[in-house]
């Protein structure tokens, strides 16, 4: 049965025992704190058998018109390693029943199995990714990179580019470069407060803990910002969440120095892996992701793919209205 967790410590205990699972930070107590700071209500539930927690889900409430809403579990729910698919499917259906209310239209989830009796929908978070394992020596990690990646990283080192970690006072520089990148490459960003609040809440959390930490990495050339990325570390698993780069001095290969130094320093700080957070799925969909996918897989990571994003309609007619309105956008 599902029930609300009694303490944040119980929540962190499950996350810390989960092992390597891409996107686990989105199910952490820290992510709940971020969402609440940004104005969204959250709910954290555990799935129990014989008084033992075997599953967990962090739900974020998304408001719709006329006081209706839906619950979203980004990269969740999660279950213990030896939990069978039969129990997982049963737990998901029980979760739908648990969340039924007069104003709940549907439940949206991103589990690591394909849920029965659900509707697949457009992905919210990337289903496929590439994760670099930090267990080998740094020299072995470099050797496993694509030849062009190694060459460009060393080229950037020779050209005098400088990497450093930034502080919160420099956030506006990252934001301006991110807007420039989004306009050039035609993608949408989150709001200003989404990124800045991450740094405010988690920017001073030590990297050698199991809690959520955030870092902003910069690469400069003669004082000019050329590349930046926002990295999250949860349970010692690092995730490259958001990146930006300038077309100025493009030939200096600043993004290669940026990722190389971020990876090297995170490994030295005790992190276990580096998740590139989103590559093109193996079915060849998302063709506009092909370019940055080549960049990301060049770092030599292991490919992971989850089933995707799914909806469980609770009020079926209103859910159909929601889908129609969304498709007309």
UniProtKB/TrEMBL annotation:
Keywords: Acyltransferase, Cell shape, Cell wall biogenesis/degradation, Peptidoglycan synthesis, Transferase. The keyword Cell wall biogenesis/degradation applies. PROSITE patterns: FEMABX. One of its GO terms (biological process) is cell wall organization. InterPro entries: Acyl_CoA_acyltransferase, FEMABX, PG_Glycine_Bridge_Synth. Gene3D superfamilies: 3.40.630.30. SUPFAM superfamilies: Acyl-CoA N-acyltransferases (Nat) (SSF55729). One of its GO terms (molecular function) is aminoacyltransferase activity. It holds the Pfam family FemAB. Belongs to the FemABX family. This is BioF2-like acetyltransferase domain-containing protein. It comes from Candidatus Veblenbacteria bacterium RIFOXYA2_FULL_43_9.
């Amino acid at each position: 049965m599902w029930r609300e967790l009694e303490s944040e410590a119980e929540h962190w205990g499950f996350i810390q025992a989960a092992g390597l699972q891409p996107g686990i930070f989105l199910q952490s107590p820290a992510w709940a704190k971020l969402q609440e700071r940004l104005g969204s209500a959250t709910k954290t539930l555990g799935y129990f058998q014989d008084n033992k927690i075997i599953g967990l889900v962090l739900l974020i409430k998304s408001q719709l018109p006329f006081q209706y809403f839906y619950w979203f579990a980004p990269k969740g729910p999660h279950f213990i390693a030896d939990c069978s698919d039969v129990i997982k499917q049963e737990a998901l259906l029980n979760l739908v029943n648990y969340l039924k209310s007069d104003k709940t239209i549907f439940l949206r989830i991103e589990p690591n199995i394909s849920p029965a009796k659900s509707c697949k929908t457009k992905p919210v978070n990337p289903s496929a990714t590439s994760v670099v394992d930090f267990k080998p020596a740094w020299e072995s990690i470099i050797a496993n990179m694509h030849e062009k990646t190694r060459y460009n990283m060393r080229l950037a080192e020779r050209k005098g580019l400088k990497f450093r970690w930034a502080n919160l006072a420099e956030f506006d520089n990252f934001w301006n470069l991110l807007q420039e990148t989004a306009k050039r490459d035609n993608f949408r960003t989150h709001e200003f407060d989404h990124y800045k609040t991450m740094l405010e809440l988690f920017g001073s959390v030590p990297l050698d803990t199991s809690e959520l930490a955030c870092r902003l990495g910069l690469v400069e050339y003669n004082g000019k910002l050329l590349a930046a990325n926002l990295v999250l570390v949860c349970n010692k698993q690092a995730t490259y969440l958001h990146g930006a780069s300038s077309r100025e001095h493009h030939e200096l290969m600043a993004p290669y120095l940026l990722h190389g130094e971020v990876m090297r320093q995170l490994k030295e700080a005790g992190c276990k892996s580096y998740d590139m957070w989103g590559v093109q799925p193996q079915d060849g969909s998302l063709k506009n992701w092909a370019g940055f996918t080549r960049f990301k897989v060049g770092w030599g990571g292991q490919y992971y793919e989850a089933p995707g994003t799914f909806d469980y309609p609770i009020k079926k007619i209103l859910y159909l209205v929601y889908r129609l309105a969304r498709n007309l956008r």
